[in-house]
Here is the input.
Amino acid sequence: MTIAAPATPTTESREIVLRVENLKKYFPIHRGVFQSHVGDVKAVDGISFTVHRGETLGLVGESGCGKTTAGRTIIRLYEPTAGRVDFLGTDMASLKGESLRQIRQKMQMIFQDPYASLNPRMSVFKIVGEPLEVFHIAAGEERKERVAQLLELVGLNPDFMRRYPHEFSGGQRQRIGLARSLALNPDLIICDEPISALDVSIQAQVVNLLEDLQEKLGLTYVFIAHDLSMVRHISNRIAVMYLGKIMELTDRDTLYSNPQHPYTQALLSAVPVPDPVIEEKRQRIILEGDLPSPAHPPKGCNFNTRCPKAFDTCFEVDPDIAEIAPGHFCACHLVKGRA
Here is the structure.
């Protein structure tokens, strides 16, 4: 079997592969003998965005902001509390049983930890070939040929298919996970910090591989990460999350050259610049305090407890995310006040 690369559509004709509307994921808090519901951890609290075919949307933010939960909720590893996830025109939240199983062929995920995401008791052949068996796509010699082809596609020797995960390095394991995600020719891959557990030199190899595969196969990515420099390299557009909400969303170049939200400005000020003259003159924005608990988010804007520019309205009214320029969205009273 061969893996054919679909024709790359023009920017104007690109279809929307994924549309997320007001997605929420709350984890209930129960206490007492009778396990009474006393509150919720608002891990994802009303996020919206679209991803077009062949595009990479970067989803960034500090640890605990809800970006991984968002990815898992989109793919229905977690059941959404509210909102809508349209994948190829189908509402994922409405699907159950066989209908959900079938559409999952076109939506795959690469997990963060390459040491925990592979079954140590299964050979590489079984790991990569399992989706082909589950969905009755290939068997026997055809399955073996497809697994070999997938391993070659991610830069691994097909002879490795009889080996087990403990015989590989972290970078090689992540390539095996990538090969598994490609087995069913998906339209969308959720990349959940796929490089954070790898050495820096290996990170670049994996990111370059993801870009090459996107070009060859016409893949669409949601790339979850906290490394802003790497996200800038791979993403077309970037969404910045904080405490379960999207603070700013725009194209890569605009975000890095003209960030509008104070949180985005603080994040970018922490990214080192490889020019010592510019680096010496740059002003760092140091955020004071800790990230509030998603079980008890502050009243008003989620960022008001740490924002150096917060004023009275920020502590009373939660700002809606609004388009402040073509394709540039921001959730900030200060920015909307200047517009």
Summary: Residues 258-339 form one domain. The mean pLDDT is 87.
